[in-house]
Amino acid sequence: MEAVINLPARTSCHRLGIDSNITKRLAIRFPSRRTKCSLYSDKIEIKRHTINNNVLGKYWGRNRILAMASKRDPNSQQNSLSSAETVDEYFTSINGKDLRQLDECISEDACFEDYAFTKPFQGKKEVMRFLQQLTECMGRNVKFRVKHIYEGDDLTAAANWHMEWKEKQIPFTRGCTFFKLTKLGKNLTIWRTEVLIESPIKPGSIVLTLLKNVTSTFDNFPKLAEWFLRSPHVILTWILKVYNIFIACWLHPILEGYIKLWSFFVRLLSSAITLVIFISKTFFK
What pLDDT does 235 receive? Predict the structure, then answer.
């Protein structure tokens, strides 16, 4: 006879850059035994820890419930991480720049689709190259702060987050990532992601006006709409060609001169501030 113990629990995971609220239900199953099952037996040990430390860039701030099976049968399989815990480990590895642990989180046939890029990253090698560049660009002080992790059915999860510099939120860095995971032996690995990032441009009601014009055009010219929706990349490629031929040749020199002009003013201002500081230290000791 199989005994089932359901322990509803709310787990709050605080790691560096991560504030994850995961609501789940722990189901602990015991193999059939002739002896009477007792909740107070030494087969299950529930421990509640309150840890406030900062070790190797990781900190824990709230109560964390750990459910552990003591005196486990050596032939039984250990429980793997859940979908939400795997996602939590993924963001923690990025914040800690732990590429080895991050490599274990990614599936061999992974597909990462970040809508800030024109094409998705296909395969583990390409994904890891992108994540390595990401960790390098983040520097020492920029971290992901995950506000919530939501666990769905069929090995799916979602997380909303923003980025912080020394625990201060960076503007226009809010985002949401959707995860699809797959089983690799006893463990879960990330197979597919879709990343949505906040746009720094806030067009507001202009979006609704643009949407109305586009839908009206589609309704009036359905064949043109079907052709465009079948191959939207053709239009984008054509626009890029027009830009490179007619616009880039004179726009790039203007932007380059604009950048050089601002660089000159920054150096001039820096020299003036340095001179003022030198004079103040010399005459106002």
Answer: 74
